[in-house]
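Protein: Acylamino-acid-releasing enzyme
Species: Erpetoichthys calabaricus
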Amino acid sequence: MAAAVTTDPKTISAIYRQYCNFPSPTQAFVGPEVPCEQGGSYINICTEWTQSELERGQSISFSRQHTVLHDGVSLRLIGPPSPCTDIQNQLLSCYSPSGKLKAVIREKQEKQFLEIWGENGLLRSTDLSVQNVHGKVYGSGQFGVLSWSHSEKKVLYVAEKKQTEIRSFFQTSASVCHDEKRESKRQEGKEEQEDSNISQQPIKDSNLEFWDDWGEGMSGSRLPVLCILDIQSSCILVVKGIPDDVSPGQALWAPGDQGLLFVGWHHEPFRLGLKFCYNRRSALYHVDFEGRCELLSSDSHAISSPRLSPDQRHVIYLEGETFGPHSQCLRLQLYDWLTKETSILVDRVKRPEKDSFAGLYTTALPMMCWSADSQRILVHTPQRSKKEIYVVQLMEKRLTRLVDSTESGSWTILTAQRDLVIAFCSAPNSPPSLKLGIFPPKGGEQSITWVSLQESDQLPAIEWTVLTFTPPPAEENQHFPGLDFEALLVKPKSVEKAGIPLIVQPHGGPHSVFVAQWQQNLAVLVRVGFAVLQVNYRGSTGFGQDSIESLIGLIGRQDVKDVQHAVNTVLQSDATLNPKSVYLLGGSHGGFLVCHLVGQYPDFYKAGVMMNPVINYATLLGTSDITDWRYTAVGLQYSYDRIPTVDDLAAMLTSSPLVHAAKITTPVLLLLGGKDKRVTPKQGVELYRVLKSRSRSVRLLWYPDDGHSLSKTSTMADSFMAMILWFLQHLGRKPH
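Structure follows.
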């Protein structure tokens, strides 16, 4: 008898709403110490969170505070946390080094303000919009920066460069305001000269000139500039000396406030998409306030996440290769500010040994990640199908795992200050729990004990496990043999009846990974009654650089076979699953794989959902913001001046699921973002027309104001309900 599945839309939406109530921490700060009469010190822990608010259809942000007693050896939570405070209009925020001041960039009615808050309230508010020094301030991504100087007298941020006003040759700027002056000037014989000056004022003959930007999720981001606000005078300085061919971001103050450190992304001859792409050519620079700019790193790699040690002696940063896979195994580099020498702290890992460190794959280092003595660094990174925390020893260049995540799922660091570590852990059946720990002395890292600041209970109705798969001999990669891969199997707990329907979900990227952490949609699907298999096929991050490179030139083949092998293996080994009730779900490259699977295995799956899928690499080539990947994916070398040949286009088409589309009989739901710059929604429309022309079951939902990630709160809610109802609609359908 089949296991029970909830089919009532009202009940499902109520579960979705319930799980929206679990917030996620985004930022934390350790406040100043206040002496306690009985010994030790009181410390305020400030945290910021996000949560989906369905009534308004948006993500909301709030802050809360916890008070702890710290005696130098142990921690004790004092009382309950403070009530949550709405910080919805807050674009960026940053506490000063002493913790006594807080800078906030706030947006109100299309204006932006930089506020300075102290212990007794608002100290200063500067309307950045009326300063007319720069354009909009960046609030996220590689250019979203807010940083205090060490002296706490200035604040650094990044904004769009002020653009010169553009007017038509046929538009005179003063046809009215100059009328009253003309008569007097005519008498002085100056009218002819003035009219000549007016006619020369326009700079361009049109405002329709094309300017590229940094692509998906960064529309309008073209020319960032580094800006400094003087707290006392409210004067804004736009930093000079930045090379013309780079876009500065991820900036911080240099030692002794002697200039700025920043990452510069090269934008010539044109920009390629930056979001989710960590292989863009970039470098670490130092610029002083005289306009002198110095290169500190290699200029031929992809650099990110510079972090200055507390003693201001060392700078660490991540380094990867340019082009190739968009996400790779990274090096952790160490720059000595005094000797000007660079050395490798953590190198890339090609093929990790069993149960050993698999390499660094983090997209960013924590903003504050150093120990108080500047001798150790905390990093978090995917390790196979979990995210783990490691300690890097500066002198020994050795790594130690900080937390045993065998039972707890995945861990993420929020901040490390004065040897107090704030992190959160979660799992597929457990929303985020906020933890505070004292960084143990050197050599005793694994003895860390945690105090729970915000504890979330496990959901008893959900269980999960990590499964490992070995490709069959016929599917081994000849250039990278011996690789395995994993999948997360999450399903209803204690189901006595067999027949649980299975949703198979390959991730996008393709070089990304599913880790065992809280995912709201996943939890709702399981609570409704589905099992979900999230497949980390060969090519996923967290398994070594060899695994990543093994997929190059084999997309549409190796990844497809890995997913199908995982599904077949699980169905054979788990008697609680229904082998005749299997569904597919995927976005971007995951949607690419869903389309391949329903085309290559037309009698296997009962329904499929694709979110902004790649359907035809050949037609996507000229419309995507990541043209380089369209070549790399099929094993071709990319260069900015490359023009595709007939053979290039043939290779792209051959790897595309479109070549199998005529065989699709599985009902397909397409969810497309109208503003997607990564994978144009016309890709989904192309498949839609193929299926409609063959009278196949297909539905397309178009979200005009959303992009590639379909990440707006209203979109996520609507698309989730559409997806699950599509699966339920075909729950009893027999595959062809």
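Remarks: The chain has 13 helices and 36 strands.
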